[in-house]
């Protein structure tokens, strides 16, 4: 689930000149399973936005912090996945994330600190209930982070790889590997102790993953003597991929949620013209 204020991928926000982020809000929900995927992202105007210090409301969906954890209620319409002969359907449910600890440290992703990333809950337990899922839901690992910036991503980045998983002994591990628009490479890794203390480390070199259907590449840090394995591809678009990847870091085999963003592809006019088919706007 991703909540957007000033949706960074929105063609409508781009075409408007990015003057008013509060008029381009969206609540993205993506569910993946053996019986198919459900993906919803409807952009809305400022009238659909409500927020205070502990709550963010976008349309019928919301995320709030109750003092100990995060409660996400979603009520969205998802479009049929390519190849599915289904009409748009309503998707309603709730996610509860109980963090193992909260992270208050932010990280600049570029030298000018125009783009900031904060792992808010690097580890936790999540429970999901949804009327679209067989069995009603599941319980597993949880994670929550936040990004904000003062410029379009494509103005300062050529692209990046990001990944998050847990080591064999249960420590969260996160990787960021970005290419700036000037070609410089910025990369770092984070692990956390059980008490929440963050430790930054230099990850092993990046190894390339197989390209997706649309030609978007990607890679992930992996020990020299090992090879990463692309286990499950979840999203494969002209500018973005999300996958489950198994890699090895410091001799430890780690299964990570991985994403690749190609900002050069995102900036292509033809790609922006394609996006409304998957990201409709209402209001």
Can you tag this structure with a few keywords?
283 residues, mainly beta, eight-stranded antiparallel beta sheet, seven-stranded antiparallel beta sheet, 4 helices, 22 strands, globular
Please provide a written account of the structure.
The protein is mostly beta strands. The chain is 7% helix and 54% strand. The chain contains four helices and 22 strands. Strands 5, 6, 7, 8, 9, 10, 11 and 12 form an eight-stranded antiparallel β-sheet that branches. Strands 16-15-14-13-21-20-19 form a seven-stranded antiparallel β-sheet. A hairpin with a 2-residue loop joins β6 and β7. The protein is globular, with a radius of gyration of 18 Å. The model has no long low-confidence stretch (mean pLDDT 93).
Summarize the structure.
The chain is mostly beta strands. It contains four helices and 22 strands.
Radius of gyration: 18 Å
Which class of secondary structure composition applies to the elements? Answer: mainly beta
Which consecutive residue ranges, at least 5 long each, have pLDDT under 50? Answer: none
The largest pleated sheet is described as: 8 strands, antiparallel
Strand content: over 45%
Number of helices: 4
Helix content: under 10%
The best one-word shape is: globular
Mean of pLDDT: 93
Distance between the termini: 21 Å
The helix/strand series, from N terminus to C terminus, equals EHEEEEEEEEEEEHEEEEEEEEEHHE
Number of strands: 22
């Amino acid at each position: 689930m991703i909540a957007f204020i000033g949706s960074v991928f929105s063609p409508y926000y781009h075409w408007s000149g990015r003057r008013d982020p509060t008029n381009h809000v969206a609540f993205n929900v993506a569910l993946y399973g053996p019986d198919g995927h459900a993906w919803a992202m409807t952009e809305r105007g400022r009238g659909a936005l409500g927020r205070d210090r502990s709550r963010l409301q976008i349309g019928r969906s919301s995320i709030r912090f109750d003092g100990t954890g995060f409660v996400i209620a979603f009520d969205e319409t998802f479009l049929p996945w390519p190849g599915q002969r289904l009409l748009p359907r309503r998707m309603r449910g709730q996610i509860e994330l109980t963090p193992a600890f909260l992270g208050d440290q932010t990280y600049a992703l570029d030298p000018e600190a125009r783009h900031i990333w904060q792992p808010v809950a690097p580890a936790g337990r999540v429970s999901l209930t949804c009327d679209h899922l067989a069995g009603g839901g599941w319980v597993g690992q949880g994670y929550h982070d936040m990004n904000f910036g003062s410029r379009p991503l494509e103005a300062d980045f050529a692209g990046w790889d990001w990944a998050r998983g847990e080591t064999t002994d249960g420590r969260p591990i996160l990787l960021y590997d970005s290419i700036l628009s000037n070609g410089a490479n910025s990369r770092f890794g984070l692990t956390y102790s059980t008490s929440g203390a963050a430790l930054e480390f230099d990850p092993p070199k990046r190894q390339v993953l197989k390209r997706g259907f649309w030609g978007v590449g990607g890679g992930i840090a992996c020990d020299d003597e090992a090879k990463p394995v692309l286990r499950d591809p979840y999203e494969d678009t002209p500018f973005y991929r999300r996958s489950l990847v198994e890699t090895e870091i410091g001799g430890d085999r780690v299964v990570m949620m991985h994403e690749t963003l190609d900002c050069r592809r995102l900036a292509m006019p033809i790609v922006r013209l394609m996006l409304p088919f998957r990201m409709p706007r209402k209001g």
